[in-house]
Amino acid sequence: MTERTEHLKEDSAGQAAPPIRKMSSEGQQTGRAYYGQLRRNIIITMITVSFTPMLLVIAILLFQFSTSYHEKTYAHLEEMVQKHKQNIDTFLSEKLANIRFLVASTNIETLTDKSFLQAKLQQLQEEYGDVFVDMGVVDETGKQLSYAGPYELHNVRYLEADWFKRAINRDFFISDVFMGLRGSPHFIITVRRQYEPSVFILRATIDFRAFNTLVENLRVGETGHAFILNKEGRFQTRPAVEEARWQNSYDYFVDRMEDSKRSVEIIERPDGSGAEHLYAIAELKGGDWLLIFKQETGDAFEDISRVFRISGIIFLLGGSGIVMTVIALTRRMVRRIMKADKEKEKLNQQMIEAGKLASVGELAAGIAHEINNPVAIMVEEAGWIEDLLEEEEFAESENLSEFQRALRQIGTQGRRCKEITHKLLSFARKTDTTVKDVQLNDLIREIVDLSAQMARYNKVTITTEFQPDLPYVTLSPAEMQQVMLNLINNAIDAMGNSGGTIHIATKLSRLEKDHIVITVEDNGPGIPESNLSRIFDPFFTTKPVGKGTGLGLSICYGIVQKNGGNIDVHSTVGKGTRFRVWIPFQKPGNPGKQKYKPTRSQT
Amino acid sequence: MSDAANDTPDRLRVLLVDDEVGYVNVLANRLEKRGMDVARATSGTAALQTVRNREFDVVVLDLKMEDMDGIEVLRIFKQMDASMEVIMLTGHGSQAAAREGLACGAFDYLTKPCDLDELLEKIRQASAHRKNRK
User: Fold this and answer.
1) Of B61, B55, B43, B57, which is closest to residue B12 (Cα–Cα)?
2) Which residue from B23, B64, B114 is facing A377, i.e. has the nearest CB?
3) Domains, chain A, ranges and CATH?
4) pLDDT digits (tens, 9 = 90+) for A524-537
């Protein structure tokens, strides 16, 4: 039993799609291209639709984040630079205040006293560490009257010194960093005092290193550092080595700050090396110096680039997830569409087949009607001659029996014509199509009984195997009888004189839900593969000319299709042929129509 | 086939109506040979004409004729003489027309080409039926 079932399944797979087999290879090619394009279109559309909002959201979020982060960074920088500017300004003004106090509180005689100056320097150094390097008193001729400090600078004349020229005209002055006579970078604070009749300047040297640390301490991130420039664009603090090389590029900031009204200006521009940098600039010393904070943009906005990186990774992962899902879904969808299209194609083929049958039927009916009359006349004329031959004058004719045989033959052949035309007309006419609820087992049993005589005559045994209690099917019993009769007659004819066995079985179909499958199987010679595909075509017959109309199976096919069922054939040459007919049954609970009761005596 | 024969009371009087002249002729010959009095009409109008002049036991009427529909002819026959028995000849597959004819009072129907013995049997039955009714 299981073996048999497997056999059935395999067959159904092989036989399922005869109409599709007709599709040319060219058609399959264009079909494949069509589905390829369909798949591409769906994939592109789905990806666009899912990516566009994702990209928009990510872009907006990143833009917002980046903007607010920029603002935050700018504010932070501004505050920091502002604070340092104040620190430096405080440092400078504090040192200036010390010197001014000293000058104001002391007369010139005391100031020129070297030991006093020494004492004062020591006092300041104790207070501020090594910030003050030395002090000196210079008269209006530039001559240093008195000096306290580590260098030998007594009686040095500063008349030509740049700082002196400027200091002598002001009450106080803070110089740029310069090398001076001592050969190391430093800057000085001077305070001028009038002692009639001449003018004196007290100058104090500020240690460059102590001042430098004020700026060097300003470090942010990996690259953020600060330095101070004077108005000529010269460094007032010790710059990083590479910074010195791009000295000239800083003129820009000097110009920029002269125009600016803000206390801290923030600029983004490339430095000498070409890398984008963030600059925060503040004026020092009343605009003489610029405090410049410089940081690589990438370093300053490290967080933003990290967020960009993370978003990028999420986007890539999510995106590839979406792409893979889309591709997988589309594949499945297109496969479904393909399957649906194939089914539609199959259905169309069946429709065409049915249409063909119908038109052939109409044509055949027309011809049959026309042929009936001449045939009737021929048969009757033959009969008339037979009648006349019975008269006495012909009784002695030696050929009388031969005449009679010939006339009987005409009669027989005439009846055959009638049979053929009647079959044609059955094919086309509206038979009794009143549908009833039919128990297929009863109907088939009745047909088997009818065929038994003919089967015995052809040495054919008919065996049946009915699954009991099959559900009722709703169809025209007359039509179904015709289907079964045609199948059985075909099987009997196929086996010829050698005889054989026909096995007829009914059961609930496992392949088709809610269908009963009827199997009519013979062990005759089988049907060659080349004929199988045409077996349901009208007028296709393998029987000798005059033996078959080629309509039996077409009629079966038409009736089964009309009743929502299906018919297929499987044959192995030398082993036999099996026809299967699937008939749908209504679900239980459907109110039954008029019940069909077979009558055994029906002819 | 002589006039004397026509007068014999037990000869069945039959009218054959069919627009196929060849069929009407050969069938009439064969029926006459079997002792019937047969008149021929090859159109509906000719049949009506004949029926007005003579009385028949049985009419054999082809339902498919060119000038008139057989059913129409049948109706007129039945109006003229309700006791007239009509056997219809139909093509195979025109059972609907045959049923309609039966509803209009035809005795029975046969499909063409029909067996002569069958036709004879039907004619005798129809004639017996007519006599019983009278």
Assistant:
1) B57
2) B23
3) 106-211 (3.30.450.20), 218-300 (3.30.450.20), 430-584 (3.30.565.10)
4) 888 888 888 888 88
